[in-house]
Design brief:
By secondary structure, this protein is an alpha+beta fold. The protein has two domains: about 1-65, 2,3-Dihydroxybiphenyl 1,2-Dioxygenase, domain 1, CATH 3.10.180; about 70-115, Roll (2,3-Dihydroxybiphenyl 1,2-Dioxygenase, domain 1). Helices cover about 20% and strands about 50% of the residues.
């Protein structure tokens, strides 16, 4: 596991809540055209948060997303589909790497991330 990220429809309330509960420091900026918050604790990055993407069904108000480090997102996509999973969002460049959103055969979504350029 290499990263956790909160997707929420009310980022301000979530930022306030997690800062109060865990003592996290929040810093909000933009990544491309997305407002993104990173949380730190003792100077170390611990998590991220962003507004829920439009494609997520409205009945889902907030969710924590887990990301796993992989050598190659494209290879992970192929292997997941071979094993009965699905690709929810194909490999996409982000920051210094790439990510993809996958779904296991039981319907649980997760992300994979690689550091390829």
């Amino acid at each position: 596991m290499c990263w956790v990220e909160l997707l929420t429809r009310d980022p301000r309330a979530a930022i306030s809540f997690y800062a109060s509960v865990f003592g996290w420091h929040a810093s909000t900026g933009t990544v491309g055209d997305v407002r993104y918050t990173t949380f730190t604790l003792g100077g170390e990055l611990v998590a991220g948060a962003m507004t829920m993407p439009d494609e997520v069904p409205s009945e889902l108000t907030a969710v924590w997303s887990v990301s796993f480090a992989v050598e190659d997102c494209t290879v992970s996509e192929r292997r997941a589909t071979e094993l009965g999973g699905q690709v929810v969002k194909p490999t996409t460049p982000v920051g210094e790497g790439r990510f993809a959103v996958l779904e296991d055969p039981q319907g649980t979504t997760f992300q994979v991330m690689d550091q390829r350029r």
